[in-house]
Design a protein that fits this description.
The structure holds two protein chains of two kinds. Chain A is mainly alpha-helical. Helices cover 47% and strands 2% of the residues of chain A. Chain A is built from seven helices and two strands; from the N terminus they run H-H-H-H-H-E-H-H-E. Chain A has a two-stranded antiparallel sheet with strand order 1-2. Chain B is mainly α. In chain B, the strands form two sheets. Chain B has a two-stranded antiparallel ribbon with strand order 1-4. In chain B, strands 2-3 form a two-stranded antiparallel ribbon. In chain B, strand 2 and strand 3 form a beta hairpin. The chains are: A mainly alpha, B mainly alpha. Chains A and B meet through helix 1 and helix 2 of A and helix 2, helix 7, helix 8, helix 9 and helix 10 of B.
């Protein structure tokens, strides 16, 4: 290699621009190999994802979503379905209601008022319900699935099952609390 | 052959003027940056004034930093070094002056129009069409002046700095013209001809290469002049200059789509963007190596000479930023970093470290020489400037990268059953607010350094003796026979051929990437296509663009599990096919809005826009109270819809000719419902109603099952553009 005059170090070229000279040093080897390395990587990557059957971003997404779905079903199977009788004591459990209150203030109060008196969303303290009968299972269902056409978000994907139970317990416990500035009733009277 | 010795003078006055402009606008850009950093840390500083709100000021900051600070700095350096490298005075004194005053007028126009909300809503290309036109004209003036200077040169071969200047001028012209093709609807409003994914691709081809050819190539050219001058050593490797120059120019132009990874952009295009970004690493480092190794034998200057410290710090930041760039372009890294403040940290490493320090190093080199002082007033103050600013940049960089990674990890924290660990978006914002304060502090330090510099420069100028121009002598150019030289050396003697080759290099990648996308909407299956916006929704969209909501909100749910779980199915090409301009956004300080339509009742939006804290007490979003008092401009709608129709949005004759009437009817209905639900009366002709109509239609424009499709054809006829 050293026979090649081009590879001599620190040869000053006979250029000169406003006093600036240039050396004719060879390209640093590590630099050149980095460059070649990235080109080889780019080539292989391109081949892999264009004709080599590399998984597309959407394929990847679908696979992950499917996995999540399976995991969810598995979990649902293992979790015993609770019925009204299992749940109806929760609104009397002060600790659960307190936890529900905390979550409610952070996520629901902006629409339903801090005492559930209503605002953008309906009053949750009266006997009138647009959806269901105001009992634990029905309130839980509303919270979980929401009423998307009417602007009540679905909270199922956001909260854990215990949190939804606590929220519902808090809501059920509100009934008859008669807060100030309550919104006029909406829906049907389901009695107390 | 007899050679004629010619006498001439350099024009150094223009260099002084551009330096003054750099310092002046630089200060403005940094201050606005500090204000918007404070606004994110502490929202009340939006002051409830439309023209001082974060989303109006951020475009002002980015444009000022790029075009006013960096722009004036490169003009100063290019004009100073080119005259000396080409041994001739600038081509035309008139064009030189026109260039200077034209450019300052453009900046002034930006300073007025951006805060007032005249914007195209495309990042770093926000300026409206009359200003775009001015930029084009002044850029041509610059080009004529520069190439005229090359034509009059007394130096046969072009030095590497000049190659980089040529690449800058040619490519920026191409980028600006192609990205700014737009149709005016009024004196200060226009719609780009591209829509949705095309607009996104063209915009980021522009945006990325603005970084490449406005903030990189010209600065590399300056580096190739001022570093060897400052250290008085030869350039390390001429061969490296050649290889990295051409590699850089050819490869850079392909890399734009790395801003659009995981989006609706076709995947082959994303892959091209990624692999070319990776290949860009070595060519970028070629410049860094040549800059750093030029110091061989003069390393001791790095201990004693602040100017050398500035220049070398700049090159080091360049090396860091051009390593981080390719890294962020790798798809899986982008998944984490995209939309976060990591990107903000990345650009500031480049802008403050590389561009800022190089500009200051150059200015410190030039000021004593141009104003006739022997050296700067105080070396010590230069050192203070360097170290304080350096600490500032590091704090800025570290805080924003930490913020970005933290928030990225919080967004993607999901249980195996798909439960988000941080379901409330605002939690992820709160987690990084302390880091916003660290950034403010970093910015404050950088500005402190700037003011120390200003003081030092002012004292130096006061010290200077009056300099009268020095007469220069050089032989008139006679082309020597260079046929025994290598091919590239010959090319360096052929200015025009060189320029054409540069142009070809940047056109190849551009055409291959952009052309296929231009017809993409035509090939969308019928059932995927969507309904165009109703007149009122389009009006609301214009409000969204005017207010600059895109600086905090994306409208592009990525093909990426955490995005889909948080915001809904990934966005499709069809969903933005009528979006002139696209509003995919690049940063999520707030949540994605692509599917926010119907998520909340109208009243929620009303209250949230007027006072975000009333709906989400932790929110840092500015309040947009003026939207409920300012009137919506229904009368402009006929013109707007007719322009959009010429751009390919399928409006019927009736929809265009009745646009304002239908919009008012829809507005009345929305306002009536709002009033019934508890909002104040009299909102029907206000901007807020249009904006709410727009927000409520996002993600809901599929041809089947839209709530608002009837408004496409008031009064309730069969939807014309719809069921074909």
């Amino acid at each position: 290699m050293s026979d090649n005059p081009n590879d001599k170090y620190d040869v000053v070229l006979d250029h000169e621009y406003d006093g600036i000279q240039e050396l004719n040093n060879p390209l640093p080897m590590w630099w050149l190999w980095t460059f070649f390395g990235t080109i080889i990587f780019a080539f292989i990557y391109w081949i892999h994802y264009s004709v080599g059957g590399g998984m597309s971003l959407d394929g990847h997404l679908q696979a992950q979503l499917q996995q999540i779905e399976e995991q969810k079903q598995l979990e649902a199977k293992n979790q015993p379905q609770k019925n009204e009788a299992d749940l109806e004591t929760l609104p009397k459990n002060a600790a659960v209601v307190a936890q529900g209150n905390k979550v409610f203030q952070m996520n629901c109060a902006n629409c339903h008022g801090d005492k559930g008196q209503g605002g953008i969303g309906p009053n949750l303290t009266d006997n009138y319900w647009i959806h269901g009968d105001g009992k634990m299972t029905s309130v839980m269902a509303t919270i979980k699935d929401g009423v998307l056409e009417k602007g009540m978000p679905s909270w199922g994907p956001i909260f854990k099952p215990e949190e939804i139970e606590a929220l519902a317990a808090f809501v059920v416990n509100l009934r008859g609390s008669n807060p100030a500035n309550a919104k006029a009733p909406q829906g049907e009277d389901k009695g107390s | 052959m007899e050679r004629k010795l010619e006498k001439f003078f350099y024009d150094d006055n223009i260099v002084k003027m551009f330096i003054m402009a750099t310092l002046f606008w630089g200060g403005a850009a940094f201050l606005v940056g500090l204000i918007i950093a404070l606004q994110l840390a502490y929202w009340p500083l939006n002051l409830n004034l439309d023209f001082l709100t974060f989303s109006r000021l951020r475009p002002l900051h980015t444009n000022a930093a790029i075009f006013a600070f960096a722009g004036n700095a490169i003009f100063a350096g290019i004009y100073h070094s080119s005259q000396r490298l080409l041994k001739t005075r600038l081509f035309s004194d008139f064009l030189t002056k026109l260039h200077f005053w034209g450019w300052q007028t453009i900046i002034l126009a930006a300073l007025i129009t951006l805060p007032l909300g005249f914007t195209q809503g495309k990042e770093y290309a926000e300026l409206e069409w009359p200003i775009d036109l001015m930029i084009t004209i002044i850029w041509v003036v610059f080009a004529v002046n520069f190439f005229g200077t090359i034509a009059r040169r007394r130096e046969q071969h072009l030095y590497v700095a000049i190659w980089f200047y040529i690449a800058t001028i040619v490519t920026v012209a191409m980028l600006h013209v192609v990205n700014s093709i737009e149709i005016p609807v009024s004196f200060l409003q226009s719609y780009p001809v591209y829509a949705g994914v095309q607009d996104a691709l063209v915009q980021w081809w522009y945006g990325h290469n603005a970084v490449a050819f406005f903030l990189t190539t010209p600065f590399l050219g300056l580096m190739y002049y001022y570093i060897p001058k400052a250290v008085n050593r030869p350039i390390y490797s001429y061969r490296l200059s050649i290889v990295h120059f051409w590699a850089l120019v050819f490869i850079y132009i392909w890399a734009g789509p790395h801003h659009l990874l995981y989006t609706a952009l076709p995947e082959w295009s994303q892959t091209l963007g990624m692999i070319f970004s990776v290949m860009l690493w070595a060519p970028s480092w070629g410049g860094m190596i040549n800059g750093l190794l030029t110091l061989r034998g003069a390393w001791h200057l790095l201990r004693t000479e602040p100017i050398v410290q500035f220049l070398i710090a700049a090159v080091t930041f360049y090396g860091m930023a051009t390593f981080e760039g390719p890294l962020l372009s790798i798809k899986s890294v982008s998944a984490l970093g995209h939309y976060t403040d990591w990107i903000i940290g990345h650009v500031h490493g480049g802008a403050l470290g590389w561009n800022g320090f190089l500009a200051f190093g150059m200015i410190y080199y030039l000021v004593p020489r141009l104003w006739g002082a022997d050296g700067m007033y105080s070396k010590k103050l230069m050192s203070y400037h360097l170290w304080i600013a350096l600490t500032g940049i590091l704090l800025y960089y570290i805080s924003m990268v930490s913020a970005g990674i933290t928030q990225g990890l919080m967004w993607r924290a999901i249980s195996p059953t798909g439960q988000m660990t941080y379901p409330d978006f605002v939690q992820t914002v709160n987690a990084i607010r302390p880091l916003y304060w660290v950034r403010v502090f970093g910015g404050l330090l950088f500005i402190t350094g700037y003011f120390i510099g200003i003081y030092n420069i002012w004292k130096t100028i006061a010290m200077g003796k009056k300099v009268s121009p020095v007469e220069q002598q050089a032989y008139a150019l006679t082309f020597k026979d260079d046929s025994n030289e290598n091919a590239h050396r010959k090319l360096e003697g052929l200015g025009t051929v060189f320029t054409v080759l540069v142009l070809v290099s940047v056109i190849v990648g551009s055409v291959i990437e952009i052309l296929p996308t231009l017809s993409i909407h035509k090939h969308l299956p019928q059932d995927e296509q969507i309904l165009p916006y109703t007149a009122l929704e389009q009006l609301g969209r214009d409000v969204y663009v005017t207010e600059g909501c895109y600086v905090c909100h994306s409208q592009m749910i990525r093909t990426y599990t955490p995005d889909v779980i948080r915001f809904g199915p990934s966005s499709t090409i069809a969903e933005s096919m009528y979006d002139h301009p696209f509003q995919w956004g690049s940063k999520r300080t707030g949540p994605d809005l692509a599917r926010v339509g119907g998520k909340y009742p109208d009243l929620w939006h009303y209250r949230h826009m007027v006072d975000p804290r009333s709906m989400n007490n932790q929110s840092i979003m500015p309040a947009y109270g003026w939207l409920e008092t300012k009137k919506a401009d229904f009368y402009s709608l006929r013109k707007k819809l007719s322009v959009l129709r010429t751009l390919g949005v399928p409006y019927t004759d009736e929809q265009v000719s009745q646009a304002d009437i239908w919009a008012e009817k829809q507005a009345e209905e929305v306002a009536a419902q709002l009033e019934k639900d508890g909002a104040p009366a009299g909102l029907k002709d206000k901007k807020i109603v249009a904006l709410i109509a727009y927000l409520q239609c996002l993600g809901k424009k599929a041809k089947t099952g839209t709530d608002t499709s009837k408004w496409n054809n008031f009064p309730f006829k069969k939807v014309a553009g719809g069921e074909q």
